[in-house]
Design goal:
tRNA_endonuc-like_dom_sf; Trna Endonuclease, Chain: A, domain 1; nucleic acid binding; alpha+beta; five-stranded mixed β-sheet; UPF0102_YraN-like; globular; Restrct_endonuc-II-like
Length: 118
């Protein structure tokens, strides 16, 4: 996926989550260990959101492409984020996925898609 396409889909995902009451914390927080597409707040919970775009759902959804290695990178990036933003250190956290497929993209929000200890 091109960077431009990725940015556009991330903005759509961010708008979807805002419409459901989540608030922005950070976008594209990149660290040596990995990148967090979106970090948002859902009440008192910090939400790390992975956005996955597939032109076609024929090869499975975007969430299915998040294997154990990718989950580990996301968890490590979340740890770095928390260490650099101590105000969130004690907040409950979760990992969500927003799948996008098709043209124009259709979005599906998967709350609590995986856990840090999966």
């Amino acid at each position: 996926m091109s960077r431009t396409r990725g940015d556009a889909v991330e903005l759509l995902a961010q708008a979807l989550l805002r419409a459901h009451g989540l608030q922005d914390v950070a976008r594209n927080a990149g660290y040596r260990v990995g990148e967090l597409d979106l970090v948002m707040r859902d009440g008192g919970t910090l939400v790390f959101v992975e956005v996955r775009y597939r032109r076609s759902a024929g090869h499975g959804g975007g969430a299915e492409s998040i294997d154990a290695r990718k989950r580990l990178r996301l968890v490590r990036a979340a740890h770095v984020f928390l260490s650099r933003h101590p105000r969130w250190a004690d907040a409950p956290c979760r990992f969500d996925v927003v799948e996008a497929s098709g043209e124009p993209p259709r979005l599906q929000w998967i709350r609590d898609a995986f856990r840090a200890d999966d």
